[in-house]
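Methods — Computational structure assignment.
A single polypeptide chain was analysed. Its primary sequence is given first, followed by the predicted tertiary structure written as structure tokens.
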Amino acid sequence: MQKHIIVNDRNYYKRLDKFLRNNYKELKLGFIYKLLRKGFIYVNGKRVKKQDFELNIGDSVEIRYNGPLDERKKEEKILPRPLDLEIIFEDDKIIAINKPAGISVHPGRNEEKVTIIEGLLYYAKDKFEPHLVHRLDKHTSGVLVIAKNKIVSRELTDIIKGRDITKKYQALVVGYLKGDNNKLESVLEDKNAVLYYDVLENYKVNNIDLTLVDIELKTGRKHQIRKQFAKIGSPVAGDNKYGNFEVNRILKKQIGLKRYFLHSYFLEFRYKNKRYTLISNLTPDLRKVLNRLGG
């Protein structure tokens, strides 16, 4: 494996992780992220750990790792582990659960809690093989659909990525918003990102304006809702990554908001001449927040 590559017109990708994925195709994705995490990636002689570090033509990218490359296989093994799953719906093709906040969908770095996929493997007890067809962020709750075999997984993934699906969320965002059928459109990770939202209620806490919104997601980009609302100056309440830490600290103290307020409550699609309508009620912790706001 060539461990030192100069960025040029032919191999260029703006983000460091995309560059590594496309120029070191013999390495699995999880192993590439491990190399970044552990500090084995250098750009122009300096250690870089940020996945979204921006590269330029002429940069020198180097992997300073001398261990066995098959070490990555250790990361791939996922074992069944018991987890209390709230099942919304199940048939011979899919299983849909109400994903709780604070639980990761898939094992990752520094993840000690049982993940959704580990819990599903335990639940399946070799009767079916669970496959993720979409994801929710660790602290996002709500409807999560899992396929029961590879064929269903491939077909459902195409449906969920396409337009013949309805995906709805509720979010509490910082700031005063108004109106219905508002459209947010932007480019995220070089792809078009679109959502629509209606305002459900406006609140105020310690001179902080808050708005409860109903969102219909038209595309499925990573952190899309959180990024797009932050872009218009109304980040999701409780989101320290894209929002305001001081505002979130006040909201935690005043209304007990301990995670970002984002919930996937509705998913509807047609598969094999059957329409699936999956609904997940707002979680108790988010209901308490609304009650404290008077909603």
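Note: Confidence is low (pLDDT under 50) at residues 70-75.
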